[in-house]
Amino acid sequence: MPIIKTENLTKIYSGNIKAVSDLNIEIEEAEIYGLLGKNGAGKTTTIKMLTTAIEPTSGNAKVAGYDLLKDREKIRNIIGVVPQDLTTDADLKGIENLRMIAAFYDIPKSVAESRINDLLNIVDLTDWGNKYVSQYSGGMRKRLELICGLVNAPKILFLDEPTLGLDVNTRAKMWKYIRDIQKELGVTIILTSHYLEEVDELANRISIIDHGKILVTGTPDELKSSLKGDIITMQFSGSDEAEAARYYPNALYSSISGEDKVRIKVENSDVELPKILSYLTQKGISPLTINVKKPSLDEVFLEYTGSSIDEDIGPEQFRRMMQNVRRLR
Ligand SMILES: Nc1ncnc2c1ncn2[C@@H]1O[C@H](COP(=O)(O)OP(=O)(O)OP(=O)(O)O)[C@@H](O)[C@H]1O
């Protein structure tokens, strides 16, 4: 039985803004489930509804057997939430932040102390528990934020953009800790992200959300192999040559990147590559480099939403990102 099952969950904000529309998802126990979407797609609103921070306009959900509309208090006790914005107090020690949360949940002191030690250990902060958060690096603070969501030993952990504002290396380290947490504690993890590599690395299953609607759900591999075809990328010595290659007649689609690089999607590269080369030879041109690959999650996102995920980030996302970057410095 799924640990979360939503039934036409919908949120309409004032001003008739339909942020989430008839959401139907099922999340299995102990999986890492990724909700992937652009800025404004409805990810945070979904998390806020499922964590009882806001009420749905219509629809309902079962969360660990509890009714989202009726059992809000019970749900709060069995979930952990790590929101996008930082919540720890930099003027307190790491361990003091964690103890405050334990006190909020009325966890007996002895239970709390041993749990806090275990959590600090999982994210390699044992030696830092007694230091002030203001002394932590950006990545360490994010790790502390991560375990703040686990003090009440939740069944389900919600992570809203867990690596927003972190550099690539620190982000990859966070992925390891998120995986370790899932393995060691057996908790179900629901994360939102607009980083394709992040959901590809972490999630057992992904749903792509766009304009408040789920467009597709599957494992990263299922989604990738649902797209037929291969991507052939070729580099030329000039833009005219690239432009000529772009119009190869059997291309399913093609695009130019940079000035001299062409990406051509074909049904089967084994068959098409020799044909492309003879087509180019007839035109008296030859590529400097050729690369063939299977569709990535990038192509999956493009195919389902009609636009690339990294086209732009909105002003609100930018504000949050810069705020986190500043505070994490
Ligand atoms: N409190 C609110 N009042 C009105 N509209 C809102 C409110 N919160 C979000 N929205 C709008 O609802 C839509 C979905 O926003 P939401 O924050 O859920 O998207 P998101 O995918 O999580 O993006 P982000 O990563 O920026 O949080 C957007 O159009 C947003 O502008």
TrEMBL record:
It holds the Pfam family DrrA1-3_C. InterPro entries: AAA+_ATPase (IPR003593), ABC_transporter-like_ATP-bd (IPR003439), ABC_transporter-like_CS (IPR017871), DrrA (IPR005894), DrrA1/2-like_C (IPR025302), P-loop_NTPase (IPR027417). GO terms for cellular component: plasma membrane. The keyword Transport applies. Keywords: ATP-binding, Nucleotide-binding, Transport. GO terms for biological process: daunorubicin transport; doxorubicin transport. Its main location: membrane. This is ABC transport system ATP-binding protein. The lineage of its organism: Archaea, Methanobacteriati, Thermoplasmatota, Thermoplasmata, Thermoplasmatales.
